[in-house]
Amino acid sequence: MKKIALALATVAGLAATGAQAQDYPTRPITMIVPFAAGGPTDVVARIVTDHMSRTLGQQIVIENVAGAGGTTGITRGAQSQPDGYTIMMGHMGTHGAAPALYPNLRYDPTKDFAPIGLAAGTPIVIVAKKDFPANDLKGFLEYMQTNGEKVNMAHAGVGSVSHSTGIFFNSVIKAKPTMVAYRGTGPALNDLMANTVDYMTDQIVNVAPQIQGGNIKAFAIATPERSPVLPDVPTTKEAGLEGYEVSAWNAVFAPKDTPPEIVKKLNDALVKSLDDENTRKRLQELGGVIPSAAERTPEALQKLVESEVARWTPVLKAAGATAE
Ligand code: MLT
Question: Distance (Å, rounded) from C-alpha 213 to C-alpha 85?
Answer without folding.
Answer: 39
